[in-house]
Design goal:
Number of strands: 2
Helix content: 55-70%
Radius of gyration: 35 Å
Strand content: under 5%
């Protein structure tokens, strides 16, 4: 419609509201039940608006938790994503994530300090005995990674107590276990072997990368240790067996990532670390089987 036509429509509507016709005369009374004739240009505009409103995508509707509205905005604070339960303890989830990040950050700072101090220490030892650094270098690095394999949890802010044989026997008596589960005495032996293999493979990667600690493959491996320490707190300290079952996905994924990173640097190191992947895969299936045989706790932390 032209501008002149729109003015005519507006003028006609205003005149009709005042009781006069479009030409300034009195409005002609109409019989009841007869709808007024709408100008063609106005009717076309109404049809376009109706078509646009039908074609516009609708925003997804979120479930509300009954939380009060923000003042002056009419938006609920407690809007949650559709499909997520309302009783998730997000504070506990954030606590696990933050603890893992903090632990990894402290370990990264330690590796950076070793890159700075370790060559200087070897230089001091070389001044005392020229043959001493060559012998002590490999031993010192192996012992460092062996310590990290068994005691990386000292960097974690969480309680990371490991289960004892007595506590494990009590757990077996209280909760069902699959028949193929190894006896409790086998776990310390298996983990000790895994720790030695981890230290050996890390030493090979350290040598292959020029004697640097703060390098990508070693960081991936140490991040796997951080995830494992957090999982230990979830399963053995907090007794969140459902959360532990779900979080085994991160433990398994991180150990395979570490093994792949080692393989890219040294195939021998990757093969030495591979038994760790096999054992953790078996352990993850064991955790799932125990969870399935018992009360099947929720796979997320529940608000207390």
């Amino acid at each position: 419609c032209s501008a002149l036509g729109r003015r005519a429509v507006i003028g006609a509507a205003g005149a009709a509201g005042r009781g006069v016709g479009a030409c300034g005369g009195r409005r002609t009374p109409r019989a009841p039940g007869i709808r007024p004739k709408v100008p063609k240009c106005l009717a076309s505009q109404q049809r376009v608006r109706a078509a646009v409103s039908r074609a516009a995508p609708r925003a997804p509707v979120a479930r509300r938790t009954g939380a009060p509205l923000l003042p002056g905005r009419g938006v609920s604070v407690g809007v949650v994503a559709r499909g997520l339960p309302d009783d998730v303890d997000w504070g506990q989830v954030q606590g696990y994530v933050y603890a893992t990040v903090v632990q990894f950050g402290l370990i990264a700072c330690t590796l950076r300090a070793l890159d700075f101090a370790f060559p200087k220490l070897l230089g001091v030892l070389g001044n005392v005995n020229s043959a001493l650094p060559a012998k002590a270098e490999g031993v010192a690095v192996f012992l460092f990674f062996l310590f990290m394999a068994f005691r990386s949890r000292i960097f974690s802010p969480l309680d990371n107590r490991r289960p004892t044989l007595k506590g494990e026997s009590k757990e077996i008596a209280e909760r069902k276990r699959p028949g193929w589960m190894p006896p409790p005495i086998a776990f310390p032996i298996i983990w000790s072997t895994i720790g030695i293999l981890r230290a050996t493979s890390s030493l090979l990667v350290w040598k292959a990368l020029g004697g640097k600690f703060l390098v990508w493959p070693l960081m991936v491996f140490l991040f796997h240790l951080c995830i494992g320490d957090t999982w230990n707190s979830i399963n053995n300290v907090d007794k969140e067996y459902g959360v532990a079952t779900l979080s085994m996905v991160f433990v398994v994924g991180s150990v395979y990532s570490a093994c792949f990173s080692y393989w890219q640097v040294s195939q021998r190191a990757g093969m030495i670390l591979a038994p760790s992947c096999v054992w953790i895969s078996i352990a993850s299936f064991l955790v799932f089987s125990i969870w399935k045989l018992n009360d099947r706790q929720p796979l997320y932390p529940v608000k207390k």
